[in-house]
């Protein structure tokens, strides 16, 4: 292979060096332009495709890379590897945002602020996708789209509508706690550096003895909380729509790296049964007097992305993304969000959004997902694309299994679909279909088709695979098994012996 050719000459996207970037080729100096001037098509066509859908909420935002450093040992609560040693450092990417405004809206609007952090851990990416408030307006995900509609534009006037907002809030008294915070000056923080962040939901931590506690995450700004008054925020809106973006970008450019201290509140499973509020209700905080803050570590943001679109616009955070030692809780809102975000990403960025550099797990990813638009990571090469298979060495690691949740009368867990209660009889119904429903001709054809299809099995595991499948045919119907075996040239006695060995 020849060396990659590097140059700084103007070229098309496919690398053809091109001579002219100002004038389109034309028939004479004043004549019509020629269709063959391909660079004109390419420029216009790519330009027409520059926009991707903006986030349906949190569309206006700013992001930066940084480092999370553990300062206190919390391993008695969690086995999460990112917390397993004081001094341990993990790369992060954080994105802050307003909620209701479009991508071009002003940074100083009265609104909660998004506070999303992606930790690139060796056990996968962990996304803590919270806000700058510890609570939220609603407590059931079914109300989320209704609520957001009230924060966006009126379908008739196409303007923001305080009527819609207050109509909804007044009909939903559970919103009062959050509305109160929103109406305070915390509704207009002075940029992103001067606000706290919260995981908001209750999550769980699991230690190496598989003991679970409930947890809340808090990021406390080391810059101190600072807010704009209503007047200051309105004034800033007319002076600089991008105040928070500029403030964060310039602070990092100047080496004035913003920091947050991560702390947790912990509640035991027993305490959760006794407290006089629902600890999984997102409209409630946990009193600090009863559940004091415990230090965990420090997050520092120290690198601006080189390209905003690549890293910030294409960032995809999901509460679904947890790691070993950190898990969900029964909070209904959290449960709703587990489903919603990856769905939004597939729509906004495509099925292979996890391959975009800012979203990619820098450690191993092994699975049987393949293909789709814009698959550019090698597509797992020639490895098998199905499971189970007899070829690869990808393992299921049971040591990562979470303890089951005790929900009173009901136990949430993963149940084996092939257990007795799940249904472990794979043979009676096919047997009845073959023997009792099929005509003689259909039976013969089915056997012939099966022989034909199974004849395609090849490679070093050929006999193993054929014998395994023959065992199933025999269990269904001995005549079927024997005839397929015969058609494949297999010694039936050997197969029977193998089958008996498997019992
Ligand atoms: C059931 C309730 C909720 C649903 C269905 C929901 C749904 C969504 C969706 C679809 C996005 C856009 C994702 C994208 O296109 O990348 C989003 C963004 C976001 N949401 Fe929610 N959300 C909910 C509640 C919350 C709550 C309670 C919080 C905070 C505590 C929150 C924080 C965020 C943040 C920070 C972002 C922006 C993430 C980023 O920077 O890319 N959301 N949400």
TrEMBL record:
Domain of life of the organism encoding this protein: Bacteria
Cofactor(s) needed: heme
SUPFAM superfamilies recorded: Heme-dependent catalase-like
Keyword line: Heme, Hydrogen peroxide, Iron, Metal-binding, Oxidoreductase, Peroxidase
Enzyme Commission no: 1.11.1.6
Family matches, as Pfam families: Catalase (PF00199), Catalase-rel (PF06628)
Cross-referenced InterPro entries: Catalase, Catalase_3, Catalase_AS, Catalase_clade1/3, Catalase_core, Catalase_immune_responsive, Catalase_sf
Domain Catalase core per the UniProt entry, residue ranges: 11-395
Family label: Belongs to the catalase family.
Protein name (database record): catalase
Originating species: Echinicola arenosa
């Amino acid at each position: 292979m020849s060396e990659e050719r590097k140059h700084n000459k103007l070229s098309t996207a496919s690398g053809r060096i091109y001579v002219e970037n100002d004038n389109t080729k034309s028939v004479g100096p004043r004549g019509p332009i020629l269709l063959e001037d391909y660079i004109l098509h390419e420029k216009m066509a790519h330009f027409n495709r520059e926009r991707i859908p903006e986030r349906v909420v949190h569309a206006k935002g700013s992001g930066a890379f940084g480092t999370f450093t553990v300062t206190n040992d919390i391993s008695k609560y969690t086995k999460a590897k990112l917390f397993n040693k004081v001094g341990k450092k993990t790369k992060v990417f954080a994105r802050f945002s307003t909620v209701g405004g479009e991508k071009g809206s002003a940074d100083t609007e009265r609104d909660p602020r998004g506070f999303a952090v992606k930790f690139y851990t060796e056990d996968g990416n962990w996304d803590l996708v919270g806000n700058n408030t510890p609570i939220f307006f609603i407590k059931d995900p079914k109300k989320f789209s209704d609520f957001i509609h009230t924060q966006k534009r009126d379908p008739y006037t196409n303007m923001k509508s305080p009527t819609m907002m207050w109509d909804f809030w007044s009909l939903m008294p559970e919103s009062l706690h959050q509305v109160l915070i929103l109406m305070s000056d915390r509704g207009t923080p002075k940029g992103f550096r001067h606000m706290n962040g919260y995981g908001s939901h209750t999550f769980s931590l699991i230690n190496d003895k598989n003991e679970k506690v409930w947890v809340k995450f808090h990021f406390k700004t080391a810059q101190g909380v600072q807010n704009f008054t209503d007047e200051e925020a309105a004034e800033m809106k007319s002076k600089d729509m991008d105040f928070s973006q500029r403030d964060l970008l310039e602070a990092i450019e100047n080496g004035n790296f913003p920091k947050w201290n991560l702390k947790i509140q912990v509640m035991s499973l027993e305490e959760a049964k006794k407290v006089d509020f629902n600890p999984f209700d997102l409209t409630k905080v946990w009193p600090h007097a009863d559940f004091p803050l415990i230090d965990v570590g420090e997050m520092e943001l120290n690198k601006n992305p080189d390209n905003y679109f690549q890293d910030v616009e294409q960032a995809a955070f999901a509460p679904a993304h947890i790691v070993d030692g950190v898990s969900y809780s029964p909070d209904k809102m959290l449960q709703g969000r587990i489903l919603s975000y990856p769905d939004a990403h597939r729509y906004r960025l495509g099925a292979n959004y996890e391959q975009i550099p800012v979203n990619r797990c820098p450690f191993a990813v092994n699975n049987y997902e393949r293909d789709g638009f814009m698959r550019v990571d090698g597509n797992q090469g020639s490895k098998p694309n199905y499971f189970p298979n007899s070829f690869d060495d990808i393992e299921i690691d049971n040591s990562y299994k979470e303890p089951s949740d005790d929900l009173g009368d009901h136990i949430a867990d993963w149940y084996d679909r092939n257990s007795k209660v799940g249904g472990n009889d794979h043979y009676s119904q096919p047997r009845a279909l073959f023997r009792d429903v099929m005509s003689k001709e259909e039976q013969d054809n089915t056997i012939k088709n099966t022989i034909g299809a199974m004849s395609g099995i090849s490679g070093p595991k050929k006999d193993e695979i054929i014998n395994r499948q023959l065992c199933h045919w025999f269990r269904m119907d001995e005549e079927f098994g024997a005839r397929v075996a015969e058609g494949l040239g297999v010694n039936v006695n050997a197969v029977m012996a193998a089958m008996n060995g498997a019992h």
